[in-house]
Each structure stands twice: as C-alpha cells, then as structure tokens.
Q: What sequence folds into this?
C-alpha cells in the first residue's frame, strides 16, 4: 500500500498543507525545526490514531486552533481508500471511506506504517521494559487474543501480589487461595511466554538476513527471547508450567519478604547478539543502530505476511547516521518494494542513485513543496 | 443551573442509581413532578418496602421476603444439587431457564485479594456448613468467567473435593443460535480450548 495524498489542516506547525507522494522514495529536505518530523508524525497518526511522540492529542492541534485534521488517500490492493482523522479538544473522530468509525480499533490497521526514528535506538540501548513494550505492541497488533491474555495476566498478578503483600514478612504461607491464584498466574504467564517465543522466532527469521545485508555480510544477528533459565522454546506448555512453578516455589520466601511476584514474563527480555556478543553491552553505536534498523525492516516483512500488503516506511532523520555502505544497502533493499518517506537536512552527502531519482520535497517554515531534480 | 432545593435533592437521589447521570436524573425528577400524588406515594412506598421487607435467605443467601426463601422451601426441588452463583441476579437468570431443579447458593461477590475480599467475606463458610450433612451430592460452580470468578470456583472446588462431593464448572464459549463469524476472537479462542470429543 502507499499514500497518494496527504492533507493537513491546523496540524502542529501547518495551517494548511497538501502533498502528493510517489509510491517509491520521497525525501523531505529542510533545516532543523522546519516541520519535517511533523509530516512524518501526521502520517503515523493517520495510521495509528495516536502519536509516537506524545500521548496528549491537543499538542497535535495547531496553536490557537480549535481542531485539526489529517486526511489521506491510501492506495491499497483493491483501490484508493480515503482516511480522515479529525482532532478536537473533545476527542478524535476517524472516518474510513467517509464513514465515521465507532471504534478506533476498527480504524487502526487501514493504513500500516513502520516508523524508524532516532529514539528507536532505545529498543537496543534502553531498559528491558522498552523491549517488552515493543513485544506487546507488535504481537498485540496482530492478535487480539494476546491483548486479552496480557490484561488477564496483569490482573492475576495483581491479585497474587495482594496476597503476598498481606502476608509480607511471614515465613511460609499455606493458603488455598494463594495456590489457586498461583495456578492461574502460571497458566496466564505461560500463554504470554509462548506467544513471545513464537514472535521472537519470526522476528529472528526476517531480521537475520536483513542485518547480514546491511553489514556487508560481516555481522550475524541473533534475536532471542529470554525468560526463566530453564524454559526453552521447544518445551510443551505443561513442561514450561512445571518449570515456572518450581521456580516460584524456590522464590517463595523472597516473594514473601518483598511482597511481589518475582518470576514471570514481566521480568523477561529480548536480547540481540551480533556475532555472539550482546550488542546492548558490547556493540558500538553504529552496530546498535544497525540492529535497531534490521528489527524495523523485519517488522515490514512481518506486516507484509500478516496483511498481504507492504506497509509505508517512515525514516525520520536516520540516513545521516549511517555510513555510506549501510545507507546504500538500506536504500537498495527498499527501492521499488516499499513506499518510503525519508527526512534529512541535505542530500548532498548522499550520492546514492536511488536518492538521486527520488522525489524531493523542500520543507521550510510550515510549508513543503515538491521539487524536481531538473530544476 | 440552579434548582430549588427539593428538586436538586431528588436529582441527587436518582443519580445514586446505576446508569443514571445528571441529565437522566433531571429528566426523571421533572417527570416525578408531573406524576399524580398517589402514584408518587405508591412509588416511594415500593422503594421502602423493597428495602425493609426483603432479607437474605438464611440458607442460600438469595433475596427473599420469607425465610427460608421459596426455592429452599420448595419440596419438589432436587436437594442433592446446589448451584453456586455470585449474585441474586444470577439466580433469577438461572430460574428463567426453568431447566434447573436443584437449589442455589449465592456468594454475594467473588474472592479478590486486591480489594481485600477473602473467602470469609463472601458466603463461603455458610456453603461449607450446608454441605456437612449428606444430602448434597453435586456442587455446580456457576461463578462468572472472570479472573476472580474463576479463582473463586477453583478455591471452592479444592475445599470440597476431599469430601467426595462431585464438583462441576459450567462451560463457557459460543452463545447458542449465534453465527461463528460474529463471535469475538477471545470468545472463539476460549470455545476452541474447551472443545470436546464427539
């Protein structure tokens, strides 16, 4: 799929903007603080009905305006689909094909985007919490059952923690209720763990060749989901449950001391090994960036698998941070495959043929204009 | 908006009911002003009577105006089966079905450590007492299919299993008469998990 047209009204720095995009590579060029990222964000919001930068929708409305609007014409396999998102102080309204959608969940997914911005480096460098959120968001996008299980898991854990808290400091606990909630906890925890194993395996399958390509065949990326030491992906659900139960029993006294559940998917992590070394600890800045990029490109493949169409790729301010080889490999991979929007401060340093052929847009002070290379 | 005191009191009272917000409450209150005095008196008496005359059955915990309740007193019912539910409303739902001829036990809630509700805070001790003589042979656990309802059912079954009384849990899954395509993903996946051999 690709975005043919984008219309912004009272969005961030734009009072009014109309742009048409090519289905290949579109480069937005402009100095800092001219509104490049705002265009990227608008497309992201059009797809996800929320921003990647803020949870406060009011910030998206142009200063002083009562409402803002994003409209897009999305070319999909079966024709052009108009999407419209109106933001006001009271909330947002989403329209697909001019029909208002009662639930945002029915709206999200009409346009699929994958965004790569500098802050995505946190996926590699940040705390395990960031990676667990990534897992939950990505799996949740394709599986409602997972979202439900996740909700139930957190609820059971809160119940179990409440019992631990009530008995905090005691030595030993024999309580049928605690056993019941522990059983439920183990059951829900294993569901989550199994889904995450499955997802990590798919991610690995797609990211590994991509990473090899970007790194000139020099780096091998291995993504693994790390949970309890003795739980392996090929075990049966019963076996995993037995291991987790064993571990919880071993931790019982410490759990009672602290009043919280100490083993389970809420303490797990996703690790990235490059040539056998943990890239979070031993990787250079460039390696970490490449690993994050491979992950995002793998996401494109995953979405293509799930939906049968390529998502739109948004690369915000990342080109300049990659070396020449990585740049051209990235551009080669996406050329002719995925509609891509790239922001950059200048293209002079980027000699790649793909960029030379791309459509250019000059962004400055709240306007953006299409320009041709021939000009 | 400034209302005279009697009417703002009435609006406040209506707002204490579930599902009634300020607008509906105001609409109801103004409607009351238009009603005949007899009707209003009858209405207020019905409210007070419902509260005063209804108690909980000392055997099963269901709401009743006689103690024990009509269901517990009914000699034609099968006294070997007890169906455990969370709320009196659930008894009424089960009774509508007219297919269950056993007795009930109303818990008035579910165990939820998070909210400080333990087994002693709901009607579980009475249930255990009830099961001490030999009449009851099967306990059907019909608590809600939520985390707390499920945990409460599991808790009760563990307590009474050793006594040899049969404990069963009602099934959950697809609604009858509905098309598969209309079921949400979560219900469908539960239905699939609970599939049985034909």
A:
């Amino acid at each position: 799929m690709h975005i043919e047209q984008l219309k912004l009204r009272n969005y961030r720095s734009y009072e009014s903007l109309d742009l048409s995009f090519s289905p290949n590579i579109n480069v937005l060029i402009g100095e800092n603080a001219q509104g490049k990222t705002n265009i990227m964000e608008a497309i992201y919001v059009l797809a996800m009905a929320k921003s990647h930068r803020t949870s406060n929708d009011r910030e998206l409305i142009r200063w002083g305006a009562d409402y803002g609007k994003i409209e897009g014409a999305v070319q999909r396999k079966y024709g052009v689909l108009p999407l419209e998102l109106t933001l006001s102080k009271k909330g947002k309204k989403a329209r697909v094909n001019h029909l208002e959608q009662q639930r945002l969940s029915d709206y999200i997914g009409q346009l699929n985007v994958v965004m790569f911005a500098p802050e995505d480096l946190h996926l590699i460098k940040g705390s395990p919490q960031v990676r667990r959120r990534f897992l939950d968001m990505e799996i949740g996008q394709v599986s409602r059952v997972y979202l439900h299980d996740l909700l139930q898991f957190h609820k059971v854990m809160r119940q179990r923690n409440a019992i631990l808290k009530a008995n905090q400091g005691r030595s030993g606990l024999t309580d049928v209720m605690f056993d019941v909630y522990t059983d439920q906890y183990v059951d829900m925890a294993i569901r989550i763990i199994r889904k995450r194993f499955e997802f990590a395996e798919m991610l690995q399958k797609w990211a590994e060749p991509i990473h090899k390509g970007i790194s000139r065949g020099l780096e091998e990326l291995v993504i693994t989901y790390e949970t309890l030491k003795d739980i392996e992906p090929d075990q049966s659900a019963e076996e995993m449950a037995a291991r987790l139960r064993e571990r919880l029993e071993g931790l019982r006294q410490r759990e009672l001391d602290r009043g919280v559940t100490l083993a389970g998917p809420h303490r797990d992590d996703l690790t990235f090994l490059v040539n056998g070394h943990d890239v979070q600890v031993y990787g250079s800045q460039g390696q970490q960036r490449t690993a994050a990029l491979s992950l995002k490109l793998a996401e494109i493949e995953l979405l293509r698998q799930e939906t049968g169409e390529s998502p739109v790729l948004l690369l915000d301010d990342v080109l300049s941070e990659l070396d020449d080889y990585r740049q051209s490999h990235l551009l080669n991979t996406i050329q002719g495959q995925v509609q891509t929007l790239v922001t950059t401060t200048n293209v002079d340093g980027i000699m790649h043929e793909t960029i030379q052929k791309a459509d250019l847009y000059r962004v400055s002070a709240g306007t953006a204009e299409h320009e041709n290379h021939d000009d | 908006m400034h209302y005279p005191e009697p009417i703002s009191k009435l609006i406040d009272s209506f707002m204490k009911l579930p599902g009634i917000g300020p607008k509906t409450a105001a609409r109801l209150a103004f409607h009351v002003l238009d009603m005949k005095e007899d009707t209003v008196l009858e209405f207020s008496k019905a409210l007070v009577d419902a509260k005063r005359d209804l108690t909980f059955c000392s055997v099963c915990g269901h709401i009743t105006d006689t103690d024990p309740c009509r269901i517990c007193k009914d000699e034609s019912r099968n006294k070997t089966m007890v169906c455990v539910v969370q709320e009196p409303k659930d008894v009424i739902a089960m009774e509508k079905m007219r297919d269950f001829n056993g007795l009930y036990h109303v818990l008035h809630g579910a165990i939820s450590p998070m909210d400080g509700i333990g087994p002693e805070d709901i009607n579980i001790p009475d249930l255990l007492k009830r099961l001490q003589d030999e009449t009851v042979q099967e306990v059907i656990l019909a608590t809600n299919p939520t985390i707390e309802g499920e945990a409460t059912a599991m808790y009760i079954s563990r307590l009474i299993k050793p006594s040899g009384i049969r404990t069963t849990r009602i099934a959950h899954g697809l609604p009858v008469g509905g098309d598969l395509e209309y079921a949400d993903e979560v219900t469908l996946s539960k239905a699939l998990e609970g599939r049985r051999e034909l």
Summary: Residues 176-214 of chain A form the longest helix (39 residues). The domain at 126-308 of chain A is CATH 1.20.1050.90 (Glutathione S-transferase Yfyf (Class Pi); Chain A, domain 2). The first strand of chain A starts at residue 2 and ends at 11. The radius of gyration of chain A is 23 Å.
